[in-house]
Design a protein that fits this description.
The chain has about 180 residues and is of the alpha/beta class. It is built from seven helices and five strands. The protein has helices at about 15-25, 35-45, 55-70, 85-95, 100-110, 135-150, 165-175, and strands spanning about 5-10, 30, 80, 115-120, 155-160.
């Protein structure tokens, strides 16, 4: 049984809010690497940013995702705020050549077969210092994530547009249907 449960979708669709709620209930999580990289690169005045060097940003995400996978073993149910497959989807979205390490990692690193996809939700979508995409790009990202996860054989379960608590309950109930 694979206990690495992934949340995916476009930016600003509520993934992180649900993960934070689940953390309060005692579930461990793996943080989103994209935001971590943006914050670190901004502080260091680096170039591995989606608005400066998309390839360097993607490659940094791949390395962080590989680390995330190693750090969070499979012994307990853990919620991942995106995973290596999202780096593949990002590459497709931005028309970046897929590196061999990324493709191999997408095939070899396995997650729970049920992946929770958060649909675009304009009502809750917000930009911030790390999220500069407009809502249209969030929608395009969602569609690329659907294609990426389907390509690697995952079952996508769309999370309904309800409160954070109801979303968390929905997810936990779907996992108990194992």
């Amino acid at each position: 049984m694979n206990n690495r449960v992934v949340f995916t979708g476009g930016p600003g669709s509520g993934k992180t809010s649900v993960i934070k709620f689940l953390e309060k209930l005692g579930y461990p999580s793996a943080k989103e690497v994209g935001r971590k990289i943006i914050k670190t690169q901004t502080e260091r005045n680096g170039d591995a940013l989606p608005w400066k060097d998309k390839v360097a940003f993607r490659d940094a995400m791949v390395l962080e995702e590989l680390n995330n996978y190693k750090v969070h073993d499979n012994s307990t149910l853990t919620f991942f705020d995106r995973c290596i497959i999202d780096s593949y989807g990002y590459s497709q979205l931005k028309q970046i050549a897929i590196s061999e390490i990324l493709l191999r990692s997408c095939r070899e690193l396995t997650y729970h077969r049920k992946v929770f996809i958060f649909p675009p939700w304009e009502t809750i979508y917000e930009n911030d210092i790390e999220r500069k995409q407009d809502f249209n790009e969030a929608v395009a990202t969602y569609h690329e994530m659907v294609k990426a996860y389907e390509r690697f054989g995952y079952e996508l379960i769309e999370v309904p547009k309800v409160s954070v608590e109801e979303r968390a309950q929905f997810i936990v109930s779907k996992l108990s249907d194992r």
